[in-house]
Specification:
This protein is α/β, with parallel strands linked by helices and 449 residues long. The chain has helices at residues 6-11, 47-50, 59-63, 65-73, 84-96, 111-132, 154-157, 192-212, 236-248, 335-350, 353-374, 396-409, 431-448, and strands at 32-34, 41-44, 104-108, 141-145, 178-179, 217-222, 225-226, 232-233, 252-256, 295-298, 305-309, 380-385, 388-392, 411-412, 414-416, 420-423. It is 37% helix and 14% strand. Helix 12 crosses helix 13. The mean pLDDT is 96.
Length: 449
């Protein structure tokens, strides 16, 4: 096919209003996306919506291409027909990524479907709890937070509060309780009292919702750091309070780690920041083990999506991990994705990429703070954990214009929320890459000023 015809052909069948570069899958390398039409190289700081962990065409991944080829020729139904490749994946996932306090797993294709199955685990658990206790309540509601994003599928549509209302408008939704999100404004030390007041209000709303729906709330779900809603961070003291509320009211605590998982925050999972000696927020977090989830959903960087759950599920007999077909799908996740993640995890483990993300994330955050000092009228609220970083612009228009200017300068980034630019680099991004990105920002901000 003539490369100039690629977009034209695609446009004949779908709404092809995506980014201008056409990716060259063979020539793209590291953190650099190569446009197949123009040959121009772009610094990719969005990593395919945070789904790529080790960049493009990593030498180790290319060396393992035969493993991917074998997995790609046939597509087994992993839920019922098992393979050596699947076993090797599960062994590697358990060793490198799966927390020992979340021993139950389930795999599926799609982050939204991962969240849905996390909810189904909680629904089943709560209803069985209610029946055992003589309650007629169905346990059919999910408490969630403003500015959240959990997907676009049936259940998750009711949980998504995207700044882009086109994603949910006109679609039927459940009337599930939505409460305030007590996000941190940075620097925290200058805004601590304000954030504490927001936390108090949010916890009040949560307790009111539980009182209004006795025995009917199955789960509380939130992203450890809200992504699309605006890169919103929370203090671990607040997360501990959620853990306590969940314990006291027979409610499952679910962390949606689809975007925050697999090392980008400098921990394998973002919720692992909520522990003593690690927390950088000004709170009395004590023993952070009390902020552990009952369930996490994962996707994006994991390639294959799914959930991991704690032994709290085993408080009821016949739960979804004991009874066949309560949760299931035809494929049980793609075997190719499983093999690809196996290779990625081997590389992440070998090169200590989670620790590298923490180290280079600090370099990125300090670089952002320098931008904030240099452009005080434009850049504010610089924040981040590991490489999962963001800052704010004064308005949506300026944010959107800055994204366009950055593309012209050779860097690809996305917005989040109404005012933020989000950074989602690959785990192996270099400080030289970050420096190039900051130079692009300076040129773009000078044009925007």
């Amino acid at each position: 096919m003539n490369k100039e015809d690629i977009r034209k052909v695609i446009s004949q069948s779908i709404l092809a209003d995506g980014m201008s570069p056409i990716i060259d899958l063979e020539k793209s390398h590291g953190s650099w996306l190569v446009d197949k039409v123009s040959g121009k190289e772009y610094l990719d700081l969005f990593s395919m919506f945070a789904s790529l962990s080790v960049g493009y065409n990593h030498p180790y991944v290319l060396e393992q291409s035969e493993r991917l080829r074998i997995a790609a020729i046939n597509k087994p139904t992993n839920s019922d027909v098992y393979s050596q490749q699947m076993a090797e994946f599960m062994q590697t996932f358990k060793r490198v990524a799966q927390p020992d306090y979340l021993p139950h797993t389930f795999f599926i294709e799609g982050g939204g479907l991962a969240v849905e199955n996390a909810l189904k685990v909680a629904f089943d658990w709560k209803r069985r709890k209610n029946l055992a206790q003589g309650s007629s309540a169905k346990g059919e509601k999910v408490l969630h937070f403003k500015q959240c994003f959990h997907g676009r599928t049936g259940y998750t549509m009711s949980l998504t509060d995207s700044p882009d209302k086109r994603k949910t408008m006109y679609f039927p939704k459940f009337d599930w309780p939505r409460v305030s999100n007590p996000k941190i404004t940075f620097p925290l030390k200058d805004n601590l009292e304000h954030v504490q007041a927001l936390e108090k209000q949010s916890l009040h709303e949560i307790k009111e919702a539980i009182a209004a729906n006795p025995d009917n709330i199955a789960s509380i779900i939130l992203e450890p750091i809200q992504g699309e809603g605006g890169d919103n961070h929370f203090r671990c003291e607040f997360m501990q309070a959620l853990r306590e509320i969940a314990n006291e009211n027979d409610i499952m605590l679910i962390y949606d780690e689809v975007q925050t998982g697999i090392g980008i925050t400098g921990k394998m999972w973002a919720h692992q920041h909520f522990s003593s000696g690690v927390c950088e927020s000004e709170c009395d977090c004590g023993d952070g083990l009390s902020a552990k989830p009952d369930i996490i959903s994962f996707g994006k960087k994991t390639q294959v999506c799914g959930i991991a759950a704690s032994t709290r599920v085993d408080e009821v007999e016949g739960n979804v991990f004991q009874e066949s077909s309560r949760i299931n799908s035809t494929w049980g996740g793609s075997l190719v994705d499983m093999v690809r993640l196996t290779i990625y995890l081997e590389l992440i483990e070998r090169d200590n990429l989670v620790d590298q993300a923490a180290k280079n994330g600090l370099y990125l955050l300090n670089s952002m703070k320098e931008l904030q000092n240099e452009y005080p009228g434009l850049v504010s609220n610089a924040r981040g954990k590991g490489l999962y970083c963001a800052f704010d612009l004064p308005s949506s228009d300026k944010r959107d214009k800055l994204s366009e200017l950055l593309m012209d300068e050779g860097s690809i980034l996305l917005g989040s929320g109404n005012y933020s630019i989000r950074f989602r680099p690959h785990l192996n991004v270099t400080t030289e890459d970050i420096d190039f990105g900051m130079d692009c920002f300076k040129r773009a901000l000078n044009k925007l000023a």
